Amino acid sequence: MKFPFTYLLLCLAIAGCHAGPQIENFEQARRPEGITTIIELRGGIAEREHVEGELLEVREDGLLLNTREVREGGVVERRLVFVPYTAMEDIGLEKVNLSMLHEEDNWAEDDAPPKRREPDRETLRQLSRFPQGLSRPLLDKLLEAQGQTTVDVIDGE
Fold first, then answer.
1. pLDDT of residue 149
2. What is the 3-state secondary structure (H, E, C) of 73-137?
3. Would 54 disulfide with which of 7, 14, 66, 136, CB 3.0-4.6 Å?
4. Domain boundaries along the sequence of the chain
């Protein structure tokens, strides 16, 4: 009779323990914005080397970002930009220390370049501002707020 009671207490004690990452230590989970994402573009894709902005939505064929670029005179320009996976060299996520497209292990300058892999879309989706997806009416409102009629698309072909 004493054994089941001791076993029950042990189970309750184990259930009360918490191991692993905790939400109070993960800032991105406690704020409404998507995580800041830096996308390195493949050479020759665009006049710039990377795109940086808030990750809004993860789609089957690429990522939608709300970019913020400082222009001449300190003018900040915000744009909604879609970057297809075919245009990406790598994806870096702010404060998560996560690289999504390259295997960086055991790679030296003398070796072949890192092997390209598919991004973990589920991880990206969970870190985006709209993990459930962005409806067309909401996208239209965001475009209107940015002064755009369509999303800027970086050509990945």
1. 94
2. HHCEEEEEEEEEHHHEEEEEECCCCEECCECCCCCCCCCCCCCECCCCHHHHHHHCCCCCCCCHH
3. 66
4. 21-153
φ/ψ of 107, rounded to 5, equals -120, 120
Q: What Rg value do the Cα atoms of the chain yield, rounded?
A: 21
The architecture CATH gives domain 21-153: Roll (2.30)
CA of 63: how far to CAs of 24, 153, 157, in Å? 27, 10, 16
3 state DSSP class of 42:
coil
Using CA atoms of 118, 120, 121, 124 in order, give the dihedral in degrees to the nearest 10.
Answer: -130
Please give the pLDDT value at position 105: 44
Residue with tokens 């990406």, as numbered in its chain: 88
Question: What is the per-residue pLDDT for 128?
Answer: 87
Length of the chain: 157
* Segment 90-133, tens digit of pLDDT: 888 876 656 566 555 443 444 444 444 556 788 888 888 898 99
Instruction: Please calculate the CA angle 59-60-66 and round it to the nearest 5 degrees.
Output: 25
